[in-house]
Amino acid sequence: MRSRRTDDHVAEEGNRSGAGSQASPNPSGAPAVHLSFRFHVNLYHSYRGDSLDEHGIGKDIRVIRGILDALDALEAGGIALRCAWDIENCYSLELYLPRHAPDIIERIKERVASGKDEIELMSWNNGLLTAHSPDELDLALGWAVSNSRGSGVEQVFGSWARIARPQENMFSAWQIPAYRRAGVEAVSLYYSAAPFNGFSSFVPLLPPIERYNPLSMRDEVSVETIRVLPAVNHADLVEHFASLRSLLGSMRRAQLSMEEPADLILVVDMDADDSFWSGYLPGSLRSFFPSFCGLESLAKSLAGIPWLRFALPGEYLETHPDRGEISLGQDLADGSFDGYSSWAEKAENAELWTILAEARRKRLLAARILAELMIAERSGEIDAGYTLDMGAPDPHAWEAALADAEKAMLEALSTTHFGMASPVMHAGRLRDALRHSQEALGAAEKLLRLAEPDPTVFFFDSGIDAMERGSGALVALPEGVEGEPGAFSRLELGGETVRLMAVNPARSRERVLSWPASGGDRSLELGPDWIRTDRFELKAAEGAGLILLDRGRAVFEAPLSTPWVRYGGCILEGSAHCLLQRLGNPPERRIATRGLVPSRLAELRIEGRIELDGGAAVLWAHVYTIAAGLSSIRADILVDYPETEPRGYDRRKAERLERSWDARWKEVAPFELVPDLGASAEAPARVWRRAFDGSVRSYTLEYHRFGPNRDLDSLDNHCADGWVAVSGPERGLLVAQAESAMSLFAFCPMRVGFSGHRQSVRLNPFGSYYGRQWRNPPAFTGLGRLAAVAVGDNYDPYAPSWAGKRLRASLMLAPFDGSSPPEGLQRDALVFAKPPIVPGRRAIG
Q1: What is the Cα–Cα distance from 777 to 204, expressed in whole angstroms?
Q2: CB 3.0-4.6 Å disulfide test: which of 172, 361, 429, 598 passes with 331?
Q3: H or E element: which one contains 812?
Q4: What spatial distance separates the first Cα and last Cα of the chain, rounded to whole Å?
Q5: Which are the contacts of 296, defined by CB distance < 8 A and separation ≥ 6?
Q6: Which residues contact residue 819 at a Cβ distance below 8 angstroms, ignoring those fewer than 6 apart?
Q7: Which alpha helices (H) appear in 199-258, and where do they start and end?
Q8: Residue 380 has what DSSP assignment?
Q9: CA–CA distance, 627 with 524 (Å, rounded to integer)
């Protein structure tokens, strides 16, 4: 093994300035460390508006021009950096840059044409890609390459490296085929030591040969593979004593300690508008902290490193093999708590997604009806279920309406509309998000009208028919749908009447809703505060809340219907609690049962309030509906959060967001669930969900086995199209959300804790946990984590966004035996999650 000094001397003649441009090893034959800077361009922000000053896109334009000036100055001084750019199309390449800074596009084009830089793919809409449907994902990636508006990277820059850098590191293994169809050969994701991260917490610590080289990612469901190029961000530089040179030196030492030293590559990736590139610190500190005084200072601090080569990631991938394989069941995102809390736990996120879920279902239903009509026309028969006197709509009108609906949906699905911003969205951007969402819904409804479906027929989602039948589900019925007489529950909640019925359709398109055959003759018993069927018993617990028994065994470790908030430094609960007794504010509590159809349906309602400071109170109601013969129960959740006085907020951030908030709100748990899973450190729990491509995917909560993350205050790595489940070795719980009420693409944050070897998992549907950020396995000093949490804008609690808002959600709770949810139960969950649509009528519920 060579010493570092000896190897440096041997390779010194290779590149005195460290400005080499080849992606191959040094001419001397010694392995090299390769370095590339990547600039992520997206001028559409959740923190800032569209003005041309520092409160809007003026900062982007200033910093990006500064990057280009620095690159020119460095090249003039003999240091030729080679860099990558990933640029979102819809807002940056179509709107802002051509209008306000066309010189930026031209300068990047020149660098690409001369071979100095490369363009990598993002997505046309800087989209929330893991929550896209497969057709939306194909469009978002395909339009990023080429589109009718001429903003595709191939159209603008003439070429692009076959690498994608997903917006906000949002990626799931089910998407691999879509990236392949778009021509992408590799995705680049953060493997970071700080909580601005992609996947480092989800795999055992990678050795340097894998951490700084391409990997192969394998999807265990489809068995498809794609290459992964790990990247780091500026927090990883802080992790190495705020010095990129120090980080590169650690890579070099690791390289020389290998039995067979091999090339390594470091991709430093950061938003192109980040002040990191212009300099966090003044130039007077350049001699002490050159890595944080701007790009020019950073690059000059690396001059004279003989074993360093500047390289393009695309060229490196062409000449270097994969050095390992990973498989990930999690949905990735670089948000707070290494997941989706930044985009899914604010009140406005639920408001927006509820609209978009309806828009998507109506668009897909319209396409389905048209396809069936065209098949019927070609065969000379019209399906009897339609009783239509017309044929398919005019193809030109249909194609135009479909194009409008697709574009509107993709624009609405921008991550910016859901926002990494915490604890609330930028006021102007939220208005934009609501406008885009309503436009997507309007375009979908126009498309559905063109299909002219029979208004007396209702539709379940396609795919249900192919699944194994379960026992049925309690679904919300749209007005105008009639079912078996007397079989309805007319549930009163929040001033609305919700019509419920237990259904298990024999076909996805039905005229009559019929009671599940397996449950029609089952009995149901009622008491003053309990309901009992042949399987379930729901009853009041001693002290507070409710107990649910499944065939005599408690389903949950803690009682149901004990909502709580963390506010003003205290955890305040919605039922008897010693803290509330000390405050002298015992909760108001009322339980009532109502038999609707004595042999089939019954409801139990529990209400309460949580007293806050100043006389404000959280008002809540949980209504449980149980039907004989079903393997699940329905819980309707209504919570009115009071508007409280803005207090304790960051005034500088509030000025940028154009909003204030009450920072005393820390956590909200409107319907926390603590299932008894029998999980342990040796046999940890597993998370399941239905992904947005319809596949069922899972991952194990085993982070304690290979890293420092044993107890997790918050985790959310499961984007769920309808339902999510957790399981232990022998039993589990499935929770589905009904899109006819409030819905979210990642609706169920979780919390993991250990008591000795026993592992517990808490589920918090439509809530928000807060606490310690994760500790990432690659951490070297811990400085990066400290710095990120201290200065990051996205680590504040999201609970303040719920102040003054109403939550209206409907959930299906289904305990199951075994280590995975049975297919029949998955079908029941899908029936519940996506209640029947009657074209022209909106479901309630």
Answers
A1: 8
A2: 172
A3: strand 806-817
A4: 69
A5: 70, 73, 74
A6: 686, 727, 728, 729, 730, 732
A7: 208-211, 234-239, 244-256
A8: T
A9: 8
CA 629, chain centre distance (Å): 35
Distance CA 701, CA 683 (A): 9
Out of 385-389, 563-567, 663-667, pick the least confident. Answer: 385-389
* Cα 737 from Cα 184, distance rounded (Å): 34
Residue 20, pLDDT > 80, answer no
Distance CA 470, CA 392 (A): 35
How far apart CA 536 and CA 495 sit, in angstroms, is: 29
DSSP code of residue 127: B
How would DSSP label each residue in 272-321?
Answer: TTSHHHH-SS-GGGTTT-GGGS-HHHHHHTTTT-TTEEE--HHHHHHHS-
Q: Which DSSP symbol is given to 794? A: T
Tell me the average pLDDT across 761-775. 97
Binned at pLDDT 50, 70 and 90, residue 579 comes out as very low
- In the sheet with 665-669, reading across from the earlier edge strand, the strands are 570-573, 564-567, 665-669
Strand partners, 83: 37, 117
Are 47 and 793 in contact by the 8 Å Cβ rule? The answer is yes
pLDDT score of 452 more than 80: no
**What was the pLDDT predicted at 143?**
98
Q: Which residue has the tokens 């239905």?
A: 690
Classify 212 as helix, strand or coil: coil
Q: Is 429 helix (H, G, I), strand (E, B) or coil?
A: helix
Cα dihedral 800, 803, 808, 813, rounded to 10, equals: 40
3-state secondary structure 707-760: CCCCCEEEECCCCCCCEEEEECCCEEEEEEECCCCCCCCCCCCEEEEEECCEEE
Neighbours of 436 (CB within 10 A): 21
Helix (H, G, I), strand (E, B) or coil at 611: strand
pLDDT classification of 490: cutoffs 50, 70, 90: confident
* CA–CA separation, 425 and 416 (whole Å): 9
Give the pair of three-digit tokens for residue 403.
Answer: 């194009």
Distance CA 610, CA 586 (A): 9
Mean per-residue pLDDT of the chain: 89
Amino acid at 117: D
Q: What is the pLDDT of residue 645?
A: 96
Burial letters for 344-383: b for 16+ Cβ neighbours within 10 Å, e otherwise?
bbbbbbbbbbbbbbbbbbbbbbbbbbbebbeebeeeeebe
Contact predicate 750/736, CB 8 Å:
no
Cα separation, 688 vs 505, in Å, equals: 24
Residue 706 corresponds to which tokens in the numbers above?
């290979």
Mean pLDDT lowest among 108-117, 248-257, 497-506: 497-506
pLDDT > 60? residue 278: yes
Tell me if residue 547 falls in helix, strand or coil. strand
- Provide the residue type at 328 as one letter: L
> What pTM value is reported for the model?
0.92
CA distance 142 to 183: 9
- Tens digit of pLDDT for each residue in 411-436? 999 999 999 999 999 999 999 999 99
CB 316 within 8 Å of CB 303: no
295: alpha, beta or left, given left = phi > 0 and alpha = psi -120 to 50?
Answer: alpha
Q: Which has more pLDDT, 348 or 14? A: 348
Q: Is the pLDDT of residue 139 over 90?
A: yes
Q: What is the tens place of the pLDDT at every residue in 528-567?
A: 889 999 899 999 998 889 999 999 999 999 999 999 999 9
By residue count, the chain amounts to 845
Sheet holding 163-164, edge to edge: 163-164, 186-190, 225-231, 215-218, 325-326
d(CA 51, CA 57): 6
Measure the CA angle with vertex 743, ends 740 and 747; round to 5°: 145
Q: Are 573 and 611 in contact (CB under 8 A)?
A: no
689-711 residue pLDDT tens: 999 999 999 999 999 999 999 99
